[in-house]
Amino acid sequence: MSTHVGSTVVKGSAARISVVRNPTVVSWLALMGATVLSWYLGEGHGAREAATVGVIVVAFFKVYLVGRYFMELREAPQILHLLFAGWAVVVCVVLVAMYLTAGD
Amino acid sequence: MPGEIGIWVFIFGDMLVFGLFFGVFVYERSRSVELFEHAHETMDLTFGAVNTLLLLTGSMFVVLGLNTLRGGASRTGSRMILVTLLCGAGFVLNKYLEYSDKIDAGHTPSVNSFYMYYFVFTGIHLLHLLIGMIGLVIMYRIARKPVLEARDIRNLEAGACYWHLVDLLWIVLFALLYLMR
Amino acid sequence: MSATDVITSPVGGETSRNGSSPARAERQSMSRNSQLLVAWCGPAMVVLFVIGSVWLARYFPPAIHPSDSPQEVAQYYRDHKDAIRVGLVFTCLAYALMGVWGVCMAVQTRRKEGLFPVLTYVQLTCMAAGTAQIVVNCGLWATAAFRAGDVSPEITQAFNDAGFIILLGTWMPFTIWAIALGLNILLDRTTPVFPRWTGYFSIWSGVCFMPGGTVWFFKSGPFGWTGVVCLWIPFMVFGAWVLYFSYLSMQNVKRGFVHEQDLSIVS
User: What CATH number should be reported for the domain holding residue B51?
Assistant: First the structure.
């Protein structure tokens, strides 16, 4: 898959089409969108608690996207992928739980 | 496997340590919510958001560059690594402006615990980023070789993965220090 | 794991064993035993540390907090004078063994680094400097215990502070040491002395010693000398680093991997 991209960068319109469909570019767009969304939530929009939980969840979703598409974990041995996703889920859940149980 | 097993030992080790940092921060925050909220109001979200966008863009270019270089040596590939290096430099500049802004306003690490965590965690992260920039310079030099061997590709992948680590740690720091309320 | 592939050198070992004088064989066996001896200093160091610092003197985890008042510190030293001093003897011995263990690492990497072993020298210099530092910090704590109760509490506190500030705050030689060991492994383009991934592990360990530096700036919380970031991360990682590399060195020596590069021929 990656070598396919590499070979198309030579020149011409074929290269440009593949850039638009390129999973790297698509995931970058998703990450930029998610950043803007969490920026919006963090700036004071929405109910305080829901917004913060949203911010944390979006952050770890972004982390997962970085791992899967940028670090190429989708093509890596399953165990790496699982460890990475496991870390994201566990840390996310712990942080949200600690935030929600903070009280007053 | 991207890179080699060793770089993943490093990456997971660092993720473990930073996971602990994140936990410490949210735990301490939950013990003095008011202080943290009050201090958080003095944060400028734009600095953090711009840095996130810079790192994400840099990460994308390093992936595109790497994909290009896998197809054989090319100037495009090395130039994309240079773009990532520029994004990193932009991050450092932005961080410098932010730090001086904070210190001028009297928000130093000794004033309250929010700013203590802010300076220590972003400082340790900045250190990781600077190491990553040294890595990018090495990667740029590898990418300009006329012929790339399997070892070169392995080293490029390892460097790229480290750079993404810097990126993803910042994503969480951004959420915790700038956006959480 | 890849260390097993390394051993194409039973061949080399064989020839040297066959074609060598009895004196040479004797010298090799002596080298083998001394290398094992220094490798065992790693685990020995951990045991002595546990006896001295964890059990007797209670410097780990620290019984005295950075936020304690001078009176509390002086009181603690006065009440536990003997346990602290005996514990410090064990602790200081543990720290001194670090210098011996460092030689073990250097000998391992020296075998392959060539005629001018730059990184091995870096390891040795930093390891010796680090050892000197932490041996001195035991002396400072012993000084605090020496006249605790007789002198004003602030003096006792100052010496106690100084000990922790040296122990954790001077991470630099340790970090450079671990990075030099890591680079020694990673820059080897043939088959490194230790498995390649341990090079990354060593550099990561070096990075993990850095948070100890926060001890200079914070009097409480996770960045003070009782904190999870300042104390626990560097110490746990350092312990794992020492024990794992001790194990790898013992494996190397037991596989007869003692004289892969015979320096008497080269130099």
Answer: 1.20.120.80
* Partner residue opposite C229 with nearest CB, options B10, B24, B113: B24
Walk along chain B (181 residues) and give the pLDDT tens digit of each residue: 889 999 999 999 999 999 999 999 999 999 989 999 999 999 999 999 999 999 999 999 999 999 999 998 889 999 999 999 999 999 999 999 999 999 999 998 888 889 999 999 999 999 999 999 999 999 999 999 999 999 999 999 999 999 999 999 999 999 999 999 8
CA-CA distance, A61 to A63, in Å (whole number)? Answer: 5
Helix (DSSP H) and strand (DSSP E) numbers for chain A: 5, 0
- Count of the separate structural domains present in chain A: 1
Nearest to B70 among A3, A31, A58 (CB): A3
CB contact under 8 A, A24 and B64: yes
Within-domain flag for C129? yes
- Tens digit of each residue's pLDDT (9 = 90 or more) over B60-105: 999 999 999 999 888 999 999 999 999 999 999 999 999 999 999 9
In the DSSP assignment, the letter for residue B175 is I
**pLDDT tens-digit profile of C141-169?**
999 999 999 999 999 999 999 999 999 99
Q: Which of C108, C122, C250 is nearest to C192 (CA)?
A: C108
- The first and second tokens of residue B106, run together, are 């009297």
- Whether residue C78 is contained in a domain is answered as yes
Rounded-to-integer distance, Cα A60 and Cα A95, Å: 11
- Please indicate, yes or no, if residue C21 is contained in any of the structural domains: no
* Closest of A82, C234, A91 to residue B20, by C-alpha: A91
Q: Which domain holds residue C158?
A: 32-250
Sign of CA dihedral A59, A60, A66, A68: negative
**Residue range of the domain that includes A47:** 2-100
Mutate to test the interface with B, among A4, A7, A9 (most CBs of B within 10 A): A9
Q: Could you give the ipTM of this predicted complex?
A: 0.93
DSSP conformational letter for B32? S
Q: Give domain status of residue C12, yes or no.
A: no
Q: Do B30 and A2 touch (CB under 8 A)?
A: no
Cα of A98 to nearest chain B Cα, Å: 6
Residue that has been written with the tokens 């490194």 in this structure: C192
